[in-house]
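Subject: mismatched residue count in predicted assembly?

I count 643 residues in my input, but I want to confirm that the predicted structure covers every chain. Input:
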Amino acid sequence: MSTAPLLIFAWGNPSRGDDALGPLLIERLQAMNLSGVDCLTDFQLQVEHALDLKGRRRVLFVDASLNAAAPFEFAPIQSARDASFTTHAMTPAAILQVYRDVEDSEPPASWLLGIRGERWALGDPPSEAALANLEQALRWTLQWIRD
Amino acid sequence: MSFELETADINPENLRRVAIDPVSRVEGHGKVTLLLDENNQVHQVRLHIVEFRGFERFIQGRPYWEVPVMVQRLCGICPVSHHLAASKAMDIVVGAAQLTPTAEKMRRLMHYGQILQSHALHFFHLSSPDLLFGFDSDVAKRNIVGIAAQYPEIAKKGILLRKFGQEVIRITAGKRVHGTGSIPGGVNKSLSKDERTELLKDAYTMVAWSREAVNIIKQLHQQNPALYDTFGAFRSSFMSLVAADGSLDLYHGALRARDADGKILFDQMDYQNYDQVITEEVKPWSYMKFPFFTALGPEAGWYKVGPLARVQNCDNIPTPLAEYERREFVAYAGGKPSHATLGYHWARMIEMLFAAETIKDLLHDDDLEGTDLVLSGERQKEGVGVIEAPRGTLFHHYRVGDNDLVTMANLIVSTTNNNQAMNTAVREVAKKYLNGREITEGLLNHIEVAIRAFDPCLSCATHALGQMPLEVSLIDAEGGVISRVSKDSDGLRRLT
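Triage response: the counts match. Full output below for your records.
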C-alpha cells in the first residue's frame, strides 16, 4: 500500500460533544474517496503518530478547539520540544519534534486546523454551532488539498 | 494481619508524610505514601489505588452478550484482554467451551497482538528511560521523547513494534481500541487473504526486532547484576496458566502455582474452580483487593503473576527463539526461581518474542480464513474465563439468569493478583534506598521503578469496595462545625 503525499490527521473523542469535530471531518473526507490523501484519526496524539508523517509532502492536523475563533483557525506549525509528552496527549509540534529525532530529517510541512467547539460533556452530541463550523472547515480543507 | 512497613509501628501523627502522587508512567491513577520519622527512617509504605470504578456492580443487570464489549471500558491499555476473558466466560454460558478452529485461532491472533503491543509499549515507552538513562537521571530526559532523541533507532523500533501489534488487533477485532471481534461462542469475522498478506509482510521483522529487545534487556541485566538481581527483590509464590503439556500458553490452559523455591503447589487446576484455591481480602486503605492462596492463608499465600511468573512457571515455550531465551534466563538464575523485580523486564521481552513468533506462525494458518465462526450448546448459568493478560492472570466470573441478564460478576485482574507483591517490592526499595537519607526526586523514582516493573494497570484493578476514607463532622444546632475528624489511610486525625 503506497503512502499518499497528503495526510490529514484529526483527533478527538466522538463521545464528548464537540470533541467529535476532528473525527467527523475525517468521516466526511473519507466518504469523498479523495486520491492522494490519507485520512487518519485517533482519540489522542501520541508518540507513534510521528511515524505516520513519513513520506508525506504536507500534513494537516485537525482538532476541535475552545480557543479558536469561529468558525476555525489555521496556522503553520513547527517542531518544538515541549512538555506535552508527560501528558496523555502530545501536541502536534511535539510530534514533529519526535519525527526529527527518530528520522533525523525535517518533518513535512504541517498546519494545524482548530475548529471552534462549544461543549465537551460526555454523551453530548455535537452542538449546532460546531456543526456549522465543521461545514466551513470542510470547505477550507478541500481547498487546502487542492493547493 | 499486617506486613512489615504496611502500618506504622508508632503514632502516625508524629511522622512526616511523603507522597508520590500520581505514580507516573503506569496506566491508571495510584499513589505511594511514605511515613518517615525525624531521622528519615521509613515506618510505613503503601501503594494506594485512589480511584473507585465498580465495574463488577454495573455489569449486573446487563445482557450477557453485551459483556465482552462492555468490559473493554475497564481500560484503554488492555481492553483486548478483558474482551477475551469475558468472551471465554460467556463461551461456557452458551455451552461452547470448545470453539471452531477459525474462532480459536482468530482469538489467539488478537491476543498475541495485544501482548506484543502492550509489552512494546511498556518496555520502550515506559521503562526504557529508567533503564537506559538511570533511575535518578535528569527527569526532563527520562521519557520516550528523550529516548527518541538519544536512541532514535531503539525508539523507532519500539514504536513500530507497538504499531504492528495494534494493527493485528485492528484487523482481528475491528478496531485498535475497544473492538468487537470476539463474541460468546466464537468470533464475528475471519481474516481475508489480503489482510494475512499485509500482516505477514512485517511479521518477520517484528520477530527480529523482538530478539533485539531481549538482547537489550539481557545485556543491561548481565552488565549490572548487583543492581538488577537485587533491586526490589523478594521471595514469593507465583502462578499462571500453563498448557496441558506444561508449556507457555497465554490464551488458554489450566492454573499452576509454585512456591518461592519452585515446588509445585497445584497444577492443571481447572480455572472454573478458581474460587477453591484463591481468596480475596479487602483492606481499609486501598480500593484494590488482596488475593491469596486459600490453603496458605493471607500471610504466606500471596503470590506474583505476569511475565516473571509465567516464564519460570512453564516447562518450555513452544516457539524456538523464545524457548532459547527462556533457557538462558533460567540458566542465569542458576536453575532456581529468580525473584528479581527487574527480571520482569527480561521475562517480558522473552514473551514479546514469543508473541511475535506466534503471530508469524498463525498468519501461515489457512484456518484464519475459515467461515465456521460460532458454536453454541446447552445454556449454562455460570462461566469463568481466564486468560494470561500482558500483566498476568486475569479472571472473569459471571452468573447469568434465565432472562439472560448478568446476576453476578467477579473480576480478579492481573494487577490485583500482584497487589501484595507490588507493595512488598516498594517496601524493599524503601528500606534499602530511602531509609535514613534525604529524599530526592531520584530516590523517589526508585519506588516508581519498582512499581513500573510490574507494568500495573491501576484502572483495571479498582473494583473492590473497600472502606472509603472517612470524615465525620459534629455540627451544632446553628449548623456550625464543632469538630471534624478524618480517618484516612494514615490513621485518625482531628481536623478542627
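Helices of chain A lie at 21-32, 92-103, 128-146. Marking this ticket as 'not a bug'.
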